[in-house]
Write a structure and sequence with these properties.
heterodimer; A: 526 residues; alpha/beta; 4-stranded antiparallel β-sheet; 17 strands; B: 16 helices; 63% helix; binds iron/sulfur cluster
Amino acid sequence: MSQTWPLPVGLKLADYHKSISNQQPTQAIIPTQGEHLIIPLLQHSGAKPHLEIALGDYVYKGQLLAKPQGNISAGVHASTSGTIVAIEPHVIAHNSGLADLCVVLEADGKDDWGNTRLPRLDYQQTDLKTLVNRVRECGVVGLGGAVFPTDVKLNVRQPVTTLILNGAECEPYITCDDRLMREHAAEIIAGAQIILHMIQAEQCLIGIEDNKPEAISAMQQAVSAIADKRFEVVTIPTIYPSGGKKQLTYILTGKEVPSGGRGGDAGALCINVGTTRSVYQAIVQGEPLIHRYVTVSGEAIKQAGNFEVPLGLPMSRLIAAAQGSTISEPWLTMGGSMMPLPLVSPQIPVVKATNCLLVRPPPNTEVVMPCIRCGRCAEVCPVSLLPQQLYWYARSKEMEQVERYHLFDCIECGCCSYVCPSHIPLVDYYRFAKAEIKAQRDTRHKAEVARTRHEFRQERIERVQREKAEKLAKHKTALKEQESSSKEGTAETDAKKAAIQAALERAKAKKAQQANTTSSSTEGSA
Amino acid sequence: MNPHYTVAQVMQQVLLALIPGIAVMLWFFGWGVITNLVLASLFALTFEALMLYMRKRPLQPFLTDYSALLTACLLALALPPYAPWWLIAVGMLFAIVLAKHLYGGLGYNPFNPAMIGYAALLVSFPLEMTLWPSASGGFGVLDLGSTLSKVFGSGLSNWDAYTHATALDSMKIGLNLHQTPSQLMQTEGMGLIGSQGWEWVNLAFLVGGAWMLYKRVITWHIPIAVLLGLTLLATLFWLYSPNHYPNPLFHLLSGATMLGAFFIATDPVTASTTPLGKVIFGLGIGGLVYVIRTWGGYPDAIAFAVIVMNMAVPLLDSYTQPRVYGRKRSL
Ligand code: SF4
Ligand code: SF4
């Protein structure tokens, strides 16, 4: 059993609400005929993929809808067969609550793959580039919530000794990874073998919190079935937020990911178990990422459970699949209760980042009191920030100070808000401040670009003018030179000229002589 | 592990933790302790409500947050029992109006309100502030009727008979007269190891403080650092010359040491908030308490020590940021 390093702090949440949803096996939802799936193009952090289909097209399940663009991007695929009935902005699950471009797919109920499945790749016989490209084309992104394109992670820049499989799932309510590990342990391990091969890592540590004994034993069985010495299932204590990738890296290796760095910088790559299975499906089965496990839970849902959901399915359909809500206007959020993302409409579709839908009674708005600087928030912050200072400066919009107190190291885990006796929604302030700073940087960047562009233009105009002037000047001197050169002339013309000149002179002299005589005569006459 | 308190609950817990100390004080000093507490609470709530009204803040959440009540109790326990009503009123005026609301109310005050109230009174009314009744035990020196007439002004002609220089006072005066601490410990008003009665009062506040630690209402940093700072200096000087300096236990168990360490210095709003900052803040208070008690002009020193260290808090907080995950230690 390998050693673990305990988190310096963190929360022991008394009630994890996990048993509500982890009892029954996962049910797959298949879209029925006429049902609309709303598939956002941008479901990952990175560049928006490029649309490959047109309105009215018929698509098969798994067909590419949008192709990755740029370095950090991921493909998007049809999650069932049917017709494209709209390509339009739609409200999606996002902090901003803004609409984004979506493809609306009307299912035909056949759920027909056609022949869109890609050929199976034997990873041991395939070069890294092809494997990475397959992962990218299949739209595999981190399913733990960060939705970072996985191909970028697997295309490692430096040697990574350890692959960490994240099965910690520390958020309250969420059990989709728990069920996934119980139900698809073999596929997860197979995916991990592919990843180990791709990043050339020596070992694979699978971190699972001790409140998931069934998942632990399922994974252990899968590991012993393949008899691969590189694998080890590590049971870790149930403490929030052990499932954060930086926290889990520390717990399993004792190493910290440097601030602003990637996991690889600590010699370990941390990948969610769901993502690992998607890698397996992409490489071995040739299937893109078109569905995921989603937990539907909360106090206001009739039959909580886990569902394998095609991406794009509206949340309302999930609620229906879970026997509906017990109250008329429940409060819908995505993610666990520690970092919930409020959903403004039940029509918001499931995306790759959707790990959990919570259906709860609206929260009773507790009076927010002033910060009493009690420091409880700082006591629990797993990153050792000073949340109260961040709050203070975020509130007064002193963004420089906020950055001095390392705002961007905040993992938005919500521990501070959870313990704050004044009920201050601290994380909301940090999200706001981060967005604000990014916007400022953006405008600064844009201004910079505009300025350089302006300067460039100015310079170009000046250059053109200068060049014109120079040309003119050159032209002038050229003319002058021509003049003078025509004066001086060549030897030949010189002789001619001289002759002419001489002749002229002679004529002049003659004239002068004549004139002299006449003038003298006229002088005399005058 | 990390209980989920509201502001009101935090304050409530602190108030509850005061009970053992209050009970022992009641035993030694009698009704005057109660009149102090009741009057201070009434004035505090009145001023709080008035200020909230004037500042157009909602009354209900702030009046029920127990913060004004806590300020009142802390000041009431620091004042000599049987303090006249107007003294308490003036003290609460300073504490609630000046030190708290003029700075923006709960959470915004840089100085500990109770200690500002105490310091202001000590400077303005030194006589009234040093008239401590002798710790007689057996539920105090005066019955309820005499207590009320003392508090509400008709006074007591023979009040002097009941009052006594506090042990800290006698120790200081005695030492100035070149008596040794051990000689002084034999005199009236001294207890076994600290001043009479006060040993028990301090122990009772220590119990309350330990309970707060157990309930995780406060962390260990500040109280332990205060006691450590005081003990360190006291031990140093005592070892250097036991004939000139009383032993550290005397300091630990006299005056408002435990009340200060566990209840006053730990006021979250005005204390440092980083772990290291809290330790330095506490050490500073403990050290200053010793210095002021030994060489300063005032007998007890908690108020001034706390106020001085309050001033250092912004600096402490900013220079003692903990090392953030994934970063090198930076200043
Ligand atoms: S927990 Fe809340 S009240 Fe306490 S210091 Fe942090 S922000 Fe302030
Ligand atoms: S949300 Fe940020 S500041 Fe709050 S506890 Fe988590 S990491 Fe610390």
